[in-house]
Amino acid sequence: MATKTQELLTLQGAKIAVAAAEKKAKEIGVDMNIAVVDASTHLLHFSRMEGAKITSISIAIDKAFTAAGHRVGTHMYKDAVWPGGAAYGLGNTNGGRFTTFGGGLPIVNAKGEVIGGIGASTGTPAQDQQVVQAGVDALQEVLRGKVRAKL
After folding, report:
1. Is the model's pTM score more than 0.70?
2. Helices marked H in the chain — which ranges?
3. Which residues contact 60 (CB under 8 A, 6 or more apart)?
């Protein structure tokens, strides 16, 4: 097979995920930077809530990059990247963009294929993780046809 057809995450899909992530950030009281990338790890949509830290803009983008590019949540690397860990030094790869703490999740279609990634930053890794999980969950509802896309 010389080619493959692949579903693409659209801007509308990215906006659905970001809107849900922003809603969760407001619920927990932490303004966030939230980024969505496509399956090729290119930035598709970004939102900086008013109180989000300027220094966490690139962190949110890099969390989305890592989640989509490596096809797993960034929190999965937390223990493995320290000296003696199975993935020690991994955080220094990809020009330092590889992120190894919570707040980045892959976005997966119904076939289990990664079609993008979402990252959030400003809160603690646990808060960032809650926010991106809300974004993924909302988009999954739309992808499964359980709710209609609303923006």
Report:
1. yes
2. 11-28, 57-70, 125-143
3. 32, 33, 34, 35, 46, 103, 119, 120, 121, 122
* Dihedral angle of Cα 77, 78, 84, 89, to the nearest 10 degrees: 60
Answer whether 81's CB lies under 8 Å from 100's CB.
yes
Task: List domains and CATH numbers for the chain.
Answer: 11-123 (3.30.450.150)
Tens place of pLDDT for every residue, the chain, 151 residues? 898 888 899 999 999 999 999 999 999 999 999 999 999 999 999 999 999 999 999 999 999 999 999 898 888 766 766 677 766 766 666 766 778 789 999 999 988 999 999 999 999 999 999 999 999 999 999 988 866 655 5
